[in-house]
Specification:
mainly alpha, single chain, 74 residues, 2 helices
Length: 74
Protein backbone atom coordinates (compact mmCIF):
# COMPACT_ATOMS: atom_id res chain seq x y z
CA UNK A 1 0.00 0.00 0.00
CA UNK A 2 1.34 3.42 -0.97
CA UNK A 3 1.38 6.29 1.49
CA UNK A 4 0.37 9.32 -0.57
CA UNK A 5 0.02 11.69 2.37
CA UNK A 6 3.76 12.37 2.39
CA UNK A 7 3.73 13.72 -1.15
CA UNK A 8 0.83 16.13 -0.90
CA UNK A 9 1.85 19.59 -1.93
CA UNK A 10 0.05 22.24 0.04
CA UNK A 11 -0.02 25.71 -1.30
CA UNK A 12 -0.34 28.36 1.37
CA UNK A 13 -1.86 31.61 0.32
CA UNK A 14 -2.00 34.70 2.42
CA UNK A 15 -5.52 36.02 2.74
CA UNK A 16 -4.17 39.32 3.95
CA UNK A 17 -5.09 42.18 1.61
CA UNK A 18 -2.37 44.58 0.51
CA UNK A 19 -2.12 47.46 2.96
CA UNK A 20 -2.32 50.21 0.33
CA UNK A 21 -5.42 48.81 -1.32
CA UNK A 22 -7.11 48.38 2.05
CA UNK A 23 -6.39 51.99 3.02
CA UNK A 24 -7.71 53.29 -0.31
CA UNK A 25 -10.97 51.41 0.15
CA UNK A 26 -11.13 52.51 3.79
CA UNK A 27 -10.72 56.17 2.79
CA UNK A 28 -13.42 55.94 0.12
CA UNK A 29 -15.86 54.28 2.50
CA UNK A 30 -15.02 56.76 5.28
CA UNK A 31 -15.72 59.73 3.00
CA UNK A 32 -18.94 58.09 1.78
CA UNK A 33 -20.25 57.42 5.31
CA UNK A 34 -19.29 60.81 6.74
CA UNK A 35 -22.37 62.76 5.52
CA UNK A 36 -24.78 60.15 6.86
CA UNK A 37 -22.86 59.99 10.13
CA UNK A 38 -23.16 63.79 10.45
CA UNK A 39 -26.88 63.59 9.82
CA UNK A 40 -27.51 60.81 12.33
CA UNK A 41 -25.31 62.55 14.92
CA UNK A 42 -27.21 65.82 14.48
CA UNK A 43 -30.58 64.07 14.74
CA UNK A 44 -29.46 62.20 17.86
CA UNK A 45 -28.18 65.45 19.38
CA UNK A 46 -31.47 67.22 18.66
CA UNK A 47 -33.51 64.33 20.02
CA UNK A 48 -31.53 63.95 23.24
CA UNK A 49 -30.91 67.66 23.72
CA UNK A 50 -27.19 67.19 24.27
CA UNK A 51 -24.12 66.20 22.33
CA UNK A 52 -23.47 62.48 22.30
CA UNK A 53 -20.25 60.64 23.17
CA UNK A 54 -19.41 59.73 19.60
CA UNK A 55 -19.06 62.55 17.15
CA UNK A 56 -19.75 62.24 13.44
CA UNK A 57 -16.12 61.46 12.58
CA UNK A 58 -15.97 58.64 15.14
CA UNK A 59 -19.24 57.23 13.80
CA UNK A 60 -18.00 57.30 10.20
CA UNK A 61 -14.66 55.81 11.25
CA UNK A 62 -16.34 52.89 13.02
CA UNK A 63 -18.63 52.25 10.05
CA UNK A 64 -15.63 52.21 7.70
CA UNK A 65 -13.85 49.80 10.08
CA UNK A 66 -16.86 47.48 9.87
CA UNK A 67 -17.54 47.71 6.11
CA UNK A 68 -14.01 47.58 4.65
CA UNK A 69 -13.04 44.13 5.99
CA UNK A 70 -16.37 42.78 4.69
CA UNK A 71 -15.31 43.77 1.17
CA UNK A 72 -11.96 42.02 1.46
CA UNK A 73 -13.39 38.86 2.99
CA UNK A 74 -15.86 38.37 0.13
Amino acid sequence: MTDITNHVVTETRSHKPPRTEFMVYFAIIFVATLPLACLTWALAALKSGSLTDKGPVARAWSQARIITPMIFSA
